[in-house]
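Ticket #4471: structure export looks truncated?
Reporter: QA, pipeline team
Priority: medium

Steps to reproduce: submit the single chain below to the structure queue and open the exported record.
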Amino acid sequence: MKLLRVIGSAHPEAGGPVESILIWGAVLKEHGCSIEVLSLDSPLEPWIESFPLKLYPMGLRNPRHHKWQKKIPWARYGYTPHFVPWLKENASRYDAIIIDGFWEYTALGSWRALRNSQTPFFVFAHGMLDPYFIRTHPVKAAAKQIFWWLADGRLAAHAENVFFTSEEECRLAQRSFWPFRGRGRIIPYGIADAPGDAAAQIESFRAAVPELGGRPFLLFLSRIHPKKGCDLLIRAFAEAAGRHPGLDLVMAGPDSVGWATDLRQMAAKLGVSNRIHWPGMLKGSSKWGAFRAAEAFVLPSHQENFGTVVAEAMACGTPVLTTDKVNIWREVEASGAGLIAQDHLEGVKRLLNEFLSLPAADKMAMGARARQGFLGNFDLAAMAPQILQALKAERTPLGLL
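Actual output as written to the record:
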């Protein structure tokens, strides 16, 4: 089977959708499925040549492309004259096409290119229809409703299926933009199992954060972004720090909106700046070592479609402390892999206090359940046949399977 994934940007640091494409590429290859990628990136991007999959970047070939994107709304939307002609000409080479996400030119362009195509196409929502974004960005939401009428909603309605990663996501999506006429299907969205030598990975992580030494720590590993609840975690940790003087906090991830400076200042005012470490984005062995060495992984998000990092922590047998705004929280809770609270300061305080008060044996048991929960819910290698079947299946009825 030959599959095309269509995405706004395939930059390796762009987040969960790109990571899922790369994981699918590695895992589905073992089942005879090859994946290629079509994006709106400029061919001049320095990372293009090292991208692990065959990539067709359709963006403008101009060194000022990034400057235009910051200043011109149509450029931010991703318009490029190369996208539609390429997709029309090449769609027949693929057995199926997945358009990853909404609200970029990939949606309008794919609708224009594929509405009369014989190649089946699907849309992966990736949490972009969550009502959270309507509440937090009402002006943008009004503009999105117009785009929904003009392009994105039409794309969803004519797709073979709109893919969601959980029943929670599908339920929320159908309340966001009117009318929702897409055919919702839950599809496995797992990850590849944690690779490599655990001891070597922990050593790599400790070397990457030398100021941490051998101290125990809680781990946050995601984008430094207001949506992730980083401020709640720092405040909750500051309160818990006095009762647990031997414990540190690692805040790992790219500073995607320039918020880290404010958070560091907050930590300094709260008197815990020397116990919070900011290694930036961790990759490869250092990232897996961070998961394996942590006492627990904490993700106090206000909205999370899936939370790849949650599954990664569970794969490493690390307890998860998260909120009920992460759409896989029910799977975490049902498997006994961690603790769940609401996404406010008192909720995050409760997460830390409840976990840190557990006996060591109970924490170890929670970690073991996290590992089993990963194998039962998020191991993509075991779910690959279900994914391939979903790509071959006929349209499902409107709503959930």
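Status: closed, not a bug. The export was complete when the record was re-opened. Leaving a note from the reviewer for reference: The two ends are 24 Å apart (CA to CA).
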